[in-house]
Structure formats: structure tokens, C-alpha cells
Amino acid sequence: xxxxxxxxxxxxxxxxxxxEIDGLRPAIADFIAPEGDWIGxxxxxxxxxxxxxxxxxxxxxxxxxxxxAQLVADRLAEAAAEWLHRLTATxxxxxxxxxxxxGIRPAVGYPSLPDQSIIHLLDRLIHYDEIGVTVTENGxxxxxxxxxxxxxxxxxxxxxxxxxxxGSAA
Length: 170
What we know:
This protein is α+β, with helices and mostly antiparallel strands and 170 residues long. It is 34% helix and 12% strand. It is built from five helices and four strands; from the N terminus they run E-H-H-H-H-E-E-E-H. It has helices at 50-59, 63-92, 99-102, 118-126, 156-160, and strands spanning 38-45, 134-135, 141-142, 146-153. A two-stranded antiparallel ribbon has the order 1-4. Strands 2-3 form a two-stranded antiparallel ribbon. Strand 2 (134-135) and strand 3 form a beta hairpin. Helix 1 (50-59) runs antiparallel to helix 2. The longest helix is centred in the middle third of the chain and has 30 residues, at 63-92.
């Protein structure tokens, strides 16, 4: 959503079920302060000849090779996203290299960021076409071995703050 001042708001959904621990239904946005925090956006893909290769393997009667190639492409995209997340968190934002301190990597379409329509907002900001990715009207990315999402970088004050179900500081 774009406001009159040109800023873009990325809407995030709340958890459908309250937490068994504290009864809260947080959304990713609850962990980002209105001022002082940063959000990184990313998209990684294995765009290239994978689709042509898998199509060719199917035509040649080798669905196993096609499935294996697609599986490897999917895993490479996920691994690249995780590598980029770790690099950004530790080298750019200065978080500890301890894996528990790096935080989450919300990717569109996954449980922490399930609203697929967010893809269209991210596309306006990071231009998927520049890395060979196209987006359908429903928010599906092609090639399918593509991962896109956000990388929240909360300030120390926000990271230490707990939030209630409405999203205000507790």
C-alpha cells in the first residue's frame, strides 16, 4: 500500500491461533518499531535454464531427472536466501554469528508471511525482472525456484521490547 507521501506499507497478518504460552497473536509488524528499525528486502532465484532442462527431460521420458533438477534448484534458492540472510545479519547489521541471535527470515508464502499478494509490493521496490523473475497476477513467481521476503533488522530497543496482541508495546 502506498501512502500520499510515497511510503509503502507492507501489511502482515496476525497468527490465526493464540500462542499456548502467552495467548498472543503476533504479526511480523509487531516486532518492527515505527521509527529506527530497518527492513531489508530480498529475492533470490535459480533463474536460467532449469525450466528448459526439466521440460527436455520430461520430453525424453526421464521424469526422475526433471524432478531431481527442480529439487536441486529449489534447495539452491532456499540455501541462497539463508546465506544472504546470515551475511546481511552478521556483516551488515552487526548481529552475533550465534545462529539464535540472527533472527528470522520471513519469506512470502511461508507461515510467518503467508499473504502472497505482498509479492506485488516487493516487486515495485526490488524489481524482480532484473534477476529474471516474473510475477503472475496471483503473486506466484517464475521460475518456481525463487524465494523472496523481508529481513527485519530491529534496533536493540525494539528487539528487547515485548508486544501485546494488538501490537502496542507492553
